[in-house]
Write the structure tokens for this entry.
Amino acid sequence: MLFQNRKPLPVVFMILAVLYFVYVVGSGSSQMIGDELGGDPGGMLLPMVLSIFMFIASVYLFITDRPAADRKPVRLGKEERQLFLLTIVVAIGYVFLSRLLGFILSTSLVLFSLSFANLRAGLFRKDCKVWLVGLVSTTVLILGVYSAGRVTTRSLLMAGRQGAIPAWLGSTGMVVFLTLLVVSALIVMLLVLTRTRFSVEHSGAAVHSMWLSAMVSIISVEFLYLVFRQMFYVELVKGLITW
Amino acid sequence: MDIFLEGLSQVANISTVLWMSIGSVLGILLGALPGLTATMGVALMMPISFQLPAATGIGLLLAVYCGAVSGASIPAILLGIPGNPNAIATVEDGLLMTKRGLAGQALGGAVVASFIGGIGSLICLVLFSPLIAKMTLAFGPAEKTTLALVGLVVIASVSGDNIWKGLLMGALGMGLAFLGTDPYSAQLRIPFARYLATTPLAKGIDLTSALIGLFGISQVFLEMRRINLPAQKVPEVKIDNIFPSFRKILGMWKIILSSLGIGTLIGAIPGTGASIAVFMAHNSAKAIAANSKGKLDMPGTGVIEGVFAPEVANNAVTGGALIPALALGIPGDAATAVLIGALMIKGVTPGFHLFSTNMALVYAIFITMFIANVFMAVFQLAGVRIYPKVLNVPPQILMPIILILSFIGAYAIAGQATGVAIYNMGIALVMGLVGYFLKRDGYPIAPIVLGLILGGMFEENFRRAVKLAGGNYLVFFTKPICLLFIAFSILSVVLPIIARRRRGGKA
């Protein structure tokens, strides 16, 4: 009866506040020796006050904050629920697997899978084959584009160091720019060659979604790699790709 | 003059101009896409700004901020859906103008109005922020403690429709800020310290990752709920006669001045935000038009006056919100809270210290704010026929990209430390999920950010003040400035409660 027609979040906050309070009390004083004389209240006083306040506020919200009688809660459809759960599962998987698989592979797999599922408006058994073909194709293509970019970068840097090309051409900014040009040319070529072949009219909605997701994935991953790794030297994990 | 030139030299380089151009265009695009907010744009760009010199990084964020606020008018005018709450009052007249075949005039007018609002509020920022910062010279630890309290309480009490939810969120943010190492005794303040002591969590929650999670990832989860809704088609409208005549603009001077004043003032009050300012400006414009003896058209009937008023006001909020942010370290809205976070990551603490020790950077911020407004106007006018096409980008593709961008952003903050980077991604994900559930149930996010940012300042000064007073907790009630701030905090909680009770709503 007490929990009827109540929102769950205040209860979560109540539990959180109690746990926080128990933790703070259990941690004891964080005063340094001699601080009792100096007057430092210690590092646990404010957290304790906060936990008490959080408990009071959540109890108040538990009592007063009820769903409006005239407003029905938004119920997600089966497909929306599937997509929502898929996004959460894939996001968790991405955090845990990105170190093992590496940035390029994990990001392209996640982007392709999420885009494909979203474009298909849900998870359907009949799309499994197309999804698998798309996944493999995306992996192969991104590896090709990435490798082309790496070769361009390394060749330019090496040539710059050896004096085979003018120094300005071998500078970081210019190398990133030229690599971007090469990679963009490859992607544009890929787009032009495949656009008609994979149009909705020509190959059906599922295959078109696969193609679109693959392109989005390849473009985004390579662009993010160029910006963060090559321009800002962020150490994006290589994982399975060792080159 | 030398300091001004030093500030100018920090900005006058190709890199800054290039990054600000990119930021401006990205901001307009983000603002134009319904569901994506200016705060989210600023949070997503934080990791890139982190890699750039301070002035360039802040310039990039300001360009995104100004662009996103202005860009929100595009879907408001063409579809009747505001890109974000900043353009909510532009819908009425904007959509009616589109239906009357005046879409070009409405879109162009919105840009001109945004530019006027941005530049006008920048002038106020330049004039007032040094004066306010100077006042803080008299502040000791006790005053700084109560100032942080004001920031927290005010934003908690005005954001959202339930004051208790705001206060609870502020407390949650502070609780998160306290995690990590005790700044005085270096004792670990994290649960399961035995296991977590060797992890990056021992240093506390990474602010950038938390912000990216709260504003970026949570929005992706939220948008997933309506991803299968049929997309609204952008109508085929002729976009011409973009520039409103100079005479027409001059004729609206009263509306412009009143909207500018409202926007700047509302922006400067922590937590109030543009969505309040735009309605006030629109109402004020109606009153001015009613008394104009027919010289001005009545806002609400599909006229340029009704687009100008909210658009001047919402961009005036950008400069207004920066006044307390730069002078006191108390952000005016969620987007400026993220901006303060970016400054703090760069080792820059807003307040008088910034004005007294790094005035060149302050000038650089003023200059970048000016450039951000100029770029916003130039790029939005130049692409006035192109940006509407962005509305056709399906969210089914956009949301996964934003999710990945959020994760990479959280990762990139760690730079070379891949172990820390993975933890950051985890923090962003957890905060994203927390943000999703909170937003879904109507809990405001801005107070959490304030708690995270001001929690450290509050604790440090609280303990210092009590220590200096020999353990006397009543020290906060012995100083006039403290008493003023405490009274202001109490009033900002009590007055909204009384006002809502009178209206018959919830506290």
Notes: Chain A has a mean pLDDT of 86.
